[in-house]
Amino acid sequence: MNWIKRAFRSISYHKKNTILMFLSFLILSILILFGLCIRAASRERIWEIRTSIGGSVLVSNERQIYSEEPRGVNSISHQKYLELCADERIRFGSCNTVTAALADNFTAEIMDGQEENGTENIYVEGSSDPVEYFSSVSSVVTLISGHVPQNAEEAVVSDGIAERNGLGIGDTIAVLSPYTKERYTFKISGIYSTNEAAYSGNVVYNNPANAIYTLDTPVYEMNENDNVKEITLQLKDPEEGRAFAEDAKKMPEYIKEEYDMDYTVNVSAYKAVADSLKSLAGISNLMVIVSVILGTITLSFLILMNLRDRMFEIGILLSVGETKMRIMLQMLMESFCPVLLAITAGVIFSYPLANVIKIAVDLSNGVQAAIKTQQIIILYLCGMGVVLASSMVMVYQIVRYQPKKILMME
Questions:
Q1: pLDDT tens profile 167-192
Q2: Using the 8-state DSSP alphabet, how is residue 257 labeled?
Q3: In the prediction, which pLDDT does 27 show?
Q4: 280-292: b or e for each residue (b if 16 or more CB lie within 10 Å)?
């Protein structure tokens, strides 16, 4: 009788050991498969979040040097802004620039202790992307009516200025630039309220209620240059934020040496979601590892117990000329069959159970856990690896003893 027939007859004869192997690996295979599926789904979800949420990099000056004129705060060249936006890691960018002006056909809000200096009392801030800008300053400024500026002729004013001067959406305001000495008119497109306490210093245009928000192009004209104050860059992949910042620091600054550029990477929204998913993936990895280790220990124990009960049988086979290799192959087959059957049954039983797990995981983390071919293949490979690792006990015992020694042990 060859070793293959002996293996199948032995499986049928030693039913207790076979059933124990089958039940043990049925449970373990389900745990391993769920762990693999959740881990894979978590990684896919993290990648989706990386591409959808993204991140941002704020470019500003660590030491903004304020010159005697307010426009001096705009210390970043427009050329620098364009080069940063051209980087392949950037989805899009926006910038803002500021200036001071004098209210022409309306009056600014003056608090106690503040005096007008006669040249400027209004703070004008222009952005290349007003929608993005108002979103970024939502904790300070809230648009309460109307809409953000959509062209260079529109502006948003504070509710304080609007009430003080009886202005509303659609009205026109005018300011005078202390640099160009020209008059600039804006149509009010929206009204905002400030969440900051009024500025208590003596510079009127620094009062938050005296700010006018518009596009960047009219502010460039008022400043007689296209320098910007800050740049906001939206990353395609938040994981590349720090690498981008390091590379950007090596680029030419086009500004004076005393201006130190600061690159602030903001990926907090991505990290908040990704960290919880990474924890879920880590737990799934741990579940797979523990299940594999537990399976190896369990199978090693069952093989060892089976081997001790069959040492006399092995000794007889060796005495009649059967090779150790065929005996090892026979016992390996006896382990492979119930384990592979248990894995197959585990895959079948996992499909209805996966629906329950899928609902719970989807609701809590947005992870769409599903059983895929890749995870099934990995499960079978894990099972085969566990059998081979556990069989080392059997190989060691069979190789170690000679027929006479085995029979004497019995």
A1: 999 999 999 998 999 999 999 999 99
A2: T
A3: 87
A4: bbeebeebbeebb
Confidence of residue 258 (pLDDT cuts 50, 70, 90): very low
* Structure token pair of residue 71: 């426009």
Amino acid 364 reads: S
Question: Is residue 305 a contact partner of residue 396, using CB atoms and an 8 Å limit?
Answer: no
pLDDT in tens, 84-95: 999 999 989 999
Count of C-beta atoms within a 10 Å radius of residue 183: 13
For the segment 46-71, the average pLDDT, to the nearest whole number, is 73
C-alpha pair distances (Å), 205 with each of 108, 189, 350: 8, 21, 67
Pairing type for strands 230-235 and 183-194 reads unpaired
Alpha carbon distances (Å) from 200 to 68, 204, 209, 273, 368: 20, 9, 12, 40, 53
Q: Domain ranges for the chain, please list them.
A: 3-50+273-409, 55-266
The CA-atom distances, in angstroms, between 329 and each of 301, 313, 326, 393, 404 are: 18, 15, 5, 13, 21
Residue with tokens 């004869």: 13
HEC-encoded secondary structure of 110-178: CCCCCECCCCCCEEEEEECCHHHHHHHCCCCEEEEEECCCCCCCEEEEEHHHHHHHCCCCCCEEEEECC
pLDDT digits (tens, 9 = 90+) for 115-144: 555 566 888 999 999 888 887 776 678 889
Query: What sign results for the dihedral spanned by CA atoms 308, 310, 316, 318?
Result: negative
Helix (H) or strand (E) holding 398: helix 392-400
H or E element: which one contains 100?
A: strand 90-103
Tokens 């209620």 -> residue: 209
Q: Is 37 within 8 Å of 375 (Cβ atoms)?
A: yes
Alpha helices in 224-372 (DSSP H): 241-249, 268-309, 311-319, 324-365
Q: Quote the pTM value.
A: 0.66
- Print burial letters for 53-72: b (CB count within 10 Å at least 16), e (below 16): bbbbbebbbeeeeeeeebbe
